[in-house]
Amino acid sequence: MRYHESIGGVFLLKKVINVAVERDGLWLDSDIVYAQVPGWLGNATRNLRLSVIRHFATGDDTKFPVIFWFAGGGWMDTDHNIHLPNLVDFARAGYLVVGVEYRDSNKVNFPGQLEDAKAAIRYMRANAAKFQADPDRFVVMGESAGGHLASMLGLTNGMTEFDFGDHLDVSSDVQVAVPWYGVVDPLTAKQGSATDAFDFVYRNLLGAEPEDAPELDAKANPLTYVSKKSVPFLILHGQQDQVVPVKDSEVLYEALNQAGVDADLYELETAGHMDVQFMQPAVFKLILEFLKKHLN
Q1: DSSP 139-207
Q2: Are 119 and 35 in contact, with CB atoms under 8 Å apart?
Q3: Topology of 24-294 in CATH?
Q4: Which of 294, 296, 244 is closest to 63 using CA atoms?
Q5: So where are the chain's domains?
Q6: What pLDDT, in 10s, does the model give residues 62-95?
């Protein structure tokens, strides 16, 4: 409707509209400390943080499924907030989105990164009521090194050897894994890469060259843990990836299928490593459809 109003002899036209509430408001809780781990050469304490895109409180028993995001960076550097502007689409679709900091390989060798990731999951499960999180619908998703973590999390449900720190009275289990161009076997990733520029990251992760340390390599290899109890997997990889060979994702997909695990693999025909194509609506739609299918 339009109204004429006279102010100082001047007639102004104002507009009144009725706005329907079509989506939730979102908060960002940034840099919440979820764990404390050894710091400077083991002589101090280091905080590990996570950030949560969460919904305005509903005041009822609504619970939102949770997507944990693990950014890449070759285990050398990572930023748990860097992709949150892109991932807000998942929050708009009804999820909580949790960006998780984990220690890089300059601070700890594997499995320290997996221990951190599991600690973040336990923190959110222990504090589910605070965030209106559904502790029975936890999704892990990540890119590259973070994709490796997502795969490891999806394959180690029920194991306790990687659980350290606080909230050990709750589970670090997850329900779905969505690795984006994730490293699988450090050895085959190193050998199959189209470039040797990143060979050093595997040595830094393991504390030894993967070809010289088969036991360490196997411990960090998601294929070691594939079983019929593994959670559903949606694997994404670019066919033009020059860093992490797409063949490794194909091997993981085949192993999951042979174990009877519900898994899908989508290869992006012209996408390279950490390509903006993965952030497009078409890809997010695939992910959301897969999650809808597998989260009861």
Answers
A1: EEEEETHHHHHHHHHHH-TT--TT--SS-TTS----SEEEEES----HHHHHHH-S-STTTHHHHHHHT
A2: yes
A3: Rossmann fold (3.40.50)
A4: 296
A5: 24-294
A6: 999 999 999 999 999 999 999 999 999 999 999 9
Tokens (6 digits) for 229 = 């109890």
User: Exposed/middle/buried for 2, CB within 10 Å: 0-12, 13-18, 19+?
Assistant: exposed
The label of the residue with tokens 């890469």 reads: 193
In the numeric block, the tokens 């012209």 are attached to 270
Between the alpha carbon of residue 57 and those of residues 51, 85, 94, the distances in Å are 17, 21, 13
| Three-class DSSP labels, 202-241 | HHHHHCCCHHHCHHHHHHCCHHHHCCCCCCCEEEEEECCC
Per-residue pLDDT tens digits for 8-31: 666 678 889 999 999 999 999 999
The answer for residues whose C-beta is within 8 angstroms of residue 23's C-beta and 6 or more apart is: 92
